[in-house]
Automatic annotation (TrEMBL):
Entry keyword Lyase: yes
Annotated keywords: Lyase, Protein biosynthesis
Family according to the record: Belongs to the prolyl-tRNA editing family. YbaK/EbsC subfamily.
Record-linked InterPro entries: Prolyl-tRNA_editing_YbaK/EbsC, YbaK/aa-tRNA-synt-asso_dom_sf, YbaK/aa-tRNA-synth-assoc-dom
GO MF annotations in UniProt: aminoacyl-tRNA deacylase activity; lyase activity
Keyword Cell membrane set for record: no
Lineage, broadest ranks: Bacteria, Bacillati, Bacillota, Bacilli, Lactobacillales
Top-level enzyme category: lyase
Protein name: Cys-tRNA(Pro)/Cys-tRNA(Cys) deacylase
Species whose genome carries this gene: Liquorilactobacillus nagelii
Amino acid sequence: MAKKKKIKKTNEERILDQHGIEYQEMSFDWLNLGQTALTEAETAGMPAKSILKTIVLQANGSSRDYLVICLPLEHEIDLKVVAAELGKKQVHLADNKKLIQITGYVHGANTPIGINFKQGFPIYFDERIKDFPEISVSAGKVGRSVRMSQKALVELVNGKYLKVE
């Protein structure tokens, strides 16, 4: 009988374990499957609006002023609204080519859990997620997610809610 291959936990899952936060490991390949992945999630009972993407922004053109916004995959971010909400002159997307140097993650694997613990960047959540008791975020690896309590995640990363559109 063949042994079942055990999936190695990501650093983010280990952080959740260390803090006693319950989560469910999931596969969710938004980058390659797009809308099909959302449809599969909905079929599995996960509202699409509860699945978050993690966007890294740079404020005021400063190489030291980064912040993270987490919002539902299907929503867009209004950079002018975010800048106004945060009292910043301007915010723009961090350079995709430098993401690994900025956050330690490749595009598609950025996660508020790891970024908060590794980089200490401020983490903001779209205020529209308050309606969802559970949310999904990247587990630090492309195609891998964790589903967990929204309040536990926000508390873990010292997150704040923000209007993003």
